């Protein structure tokens, strides 16, 4: 059964979203970036780079890109709308807040102290999903959540509980950030116990973790695991892509192909000042771009015996199921 999905250009049938990258960022800034007024980015440059990136993905058959940028990290739906118009690629944007450690917790911590945070978060998520973001009329198609390394803090739990409630009322899928692939089973358990539908949950960045038993512990809740940082190697606690491929082949061979999503978590424009990575790290991050999946990961999966049909399941059928469950 198909359902309508909110893209930045309006509703699209889930049957029509096609091959989908489930977690990328056209532009991202760590909260605080906008304090550096010396490096304000020109929206026209973000659009130009975004269109180039979207067209590269489109050349590999990608029809839809989910931009998982949370509200506190520079999310800009009008820029995404222009990228979508100019590239012909569907873009689905998010509503939500980043995890406590790298997000902007001050505002809602203050509200928590007043005892009104959860109510306000609920109104924010519902308002954006129902009426659009600000005055743009653009509606988010996913709720973005995050938790820290080995913990889902009190602050983060407010967002998880509220998101589950909002999903029950709106049907909007949830995409999460796990730090270094930790707290996967706990995130799934928390969301499902609060009433979210596991078939509409992607526990993200689980490719930060190469323990296949831990993946299965998460998968047993019926959720998807996102191998969505392909190309990020030995940075922010990440393993190597070849280790990820080995885990993927193991999971696929164990029958989990219909619970996996693939993406890169690319940051195509860093908001704030752009600082080069140190040389050794830059070398490891050379494949962190929108084509890594198609140029390196899929060929490696095929070499490991994964069929074209299974790859199609992961890139086309799974996103469609998530958005039509
Ligand atoms: Zn991300």
Number of strands: 11
Could you say which small molecules are bound to this protein? zinc ion
- Fraction of residues in β-strands: 5-15%
End-to-end distance: 8 Å
Proportion in helices: 40-55%
Order of helices and strands: EEEHEHEEHHEHEHEHEHEHHH
- Strand order across the biggest sheet? 6-7-8-9-10-11
Count of separate DSSP helical elements: 11
**Overall average residue pLDDT:** 97
Low-pLDDT sequence parts: none
Question: What summary fits the major beta sheet?
Answer: 6 strands, parallel
Q: Structural class from helices and strands?
A: alpha/beta
Compute the gyration radius: what is it?
A: 18 Å
Which of globular, elongated, flat, extended, rod-shaped describes the shape?
A: globular
Walk me through what this model shows.
By secondary structure, this protein is α/β, with parallel strands linked by helices. The protein contains eleven helices and eleven strands. The protein has a six-stranded parallel β-sheet. Strands 3-4-5 form a three-stranded parallel β-sheet. A two-stranded antiparallel sheet has the order 1-2. Strand 8, helix 6 and strand 9 form a beta-alpha-beta unit. Helix 3 (106-113) crosses helix 4 (117-131), helix 4 (117-131) packs parallel to helix 5 (154-170) and helix 6 packs parallel to helix 7. The radius of gyration is 18 Å and the shape is globular. The relative contact order is 0.14. The chain binds zinc ion (ZN).
